[in-house]
């Protein structure tokens, strides 16, 4: 069974960088796309970025200048960095898997980690 | 970006009712449409992919249909565990986009 676990600070100060890591178990990190999605309180789901095991990345254009993603296959981890955080970045952050091709569905999700941006 | 629009945004129903939720894409996405169920504070769960394929382990009372721009998720005989919010998502092109969700509440 594939499992994903998000980790990182739950409180980030405004203007600082929000950094999260997702650790994958039960599956090879190779040959799938790995994705970050967030959900602000009481709102819907927003796709942030996807990274392929090869390191190829794609980001939501609404955030592209602030988002950085990376992958470390040797550790079965991938990461998200969101710079210049504001209160609008307060959300439940999920990491997730898109099996195989990017056009496939998101079939496994982490439990999510709540991140609050506040001084 | 492809916009996804749910209808209705919420509905009230009783256990045993049949329910249909629709999702419209702002442009054709073929059958690259997925449905998720989410309960408060939990991660979404994949129900249907490629518009009509039932994900392994999902009860057959869930079904999906549609292609192009118009899609539907039907629940035949609501069960107590089905009260949740449902999201459609297009995987046709980047950026991946979700609809705003339909909340299914107890009448």
Q: How would you describe this structure to a colleague?
A:
The complex is a heterodimer of chains A (119) and B (107). Chain A is mainly β and 119 residues long. Chain A has no helices and eleven strands. In chain A, the strands form two sheets. In chain A, strands 2, 4, 5, 6, 9, 10 and 11 form a seven-stranded mixed β-sheet that branches. Chain B is mainly β. In chain B, the strands form two sheets. In chain B, strands 2, 4, 5, 6, 9, 10 and 11 form a seven-stranded mixed β-sheet that branches. Chain B has a four-stranded antiparallel β-sheet with strand order 1-3-8-7, with no helix packed on it. The radius of gyration of chain B is 13 Å and the shape is globular. The model of chain B has no long low-confidence stretch (mean pLDDT 97). The chains are: A mainly beta (119), B mainly beta (107). Chain A binds chain B through residues 35, 44-47, 50, 58, 60-62, 92, 94, 96, 98, 102-107, 109-112, and chain B through 1, 32, 34, 36, 38, 41-46, 49-50, 55, 87, 89, 91-92, 94-101.
Percent of residues in β-strands of chain A: over 45%
Shape descriptor of chain B reads: globular
- What percent strand of chain B? over 45%
Number of helices of chain A: 0
What's the rounded overall pLDDT mean of chain A?
A: 94
**Largest interface, C-beta within 8 A:** A-B, 24 and 26 residues
Helix % of chain A is under 10%
Structural class of chain B: mainly beta
Put simply, the count of helices of chain B is 0
H and E string of chain B: EEEEEEEEEEE
What Rg of chain B, in angstroms, do the CA atoms define? 13 Å
Q: Fraction of residues of chain B in helices?
A: under 10%
The Cα radius of gyration of chain A reads: 13 Å
Alpha-carbon distance between the termini of chain B? 36 Å
Total strands of chain A: 11
Number of strands of chain B: 11
Judged by helices, strands and strand pairing, the structural class of chain A is: mainly beta
What oligomeric arrangement do these chains adopt? heterodimer
How is the biggest beta sheet of chain A arranged? 7 strands, mixed
């Amino acid at each position: 069974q594939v499992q994903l676990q998000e980790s990182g600070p739950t409180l980030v100060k405004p203007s600082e960088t929000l950094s999260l890591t997702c650790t994958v178990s039960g599956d090879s990190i190779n040959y799938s796309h790995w994705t970050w999605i967030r959900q602000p309180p009481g709102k819907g789901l927003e796709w942030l970025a996807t990274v392929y095991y090869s390191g190829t990345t794609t980001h939501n254009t609404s955030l592209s200048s602030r988002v950085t993603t990376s992958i470390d296959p040797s550790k079965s981890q991938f990461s998200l960095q969101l710079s210049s955080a504001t209160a609008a970045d307060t959300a439940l952050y999920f990491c997730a898997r898109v099996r195989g091709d990017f056009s496939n569905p998101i079939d496994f999700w982490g439990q999510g980690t709540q991140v609050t941006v506040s001084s | 970006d492809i916009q996804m629009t749910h209808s209705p945004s919420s509905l009230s129903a009783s256990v045993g009712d049949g329910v249909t939720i629709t999702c419209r894409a702002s442009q054709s996405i073929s059958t690259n449409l997925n449905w998720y169920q989410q309960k408060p504070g939990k991660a979404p769960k994949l129900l249907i992919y490629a518009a009509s394929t039932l994900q392994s382990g999902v009860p057959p009372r869930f079904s999906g249909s549609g292609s192009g721009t118009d899609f539907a998720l039907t629940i035949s005989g609501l069960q107590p565990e089905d009260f949740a919010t449902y999201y459609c998502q297009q995987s046709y092109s980047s950026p991946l986009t979700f609809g705003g969700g339909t909340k299914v509440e107890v009448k």
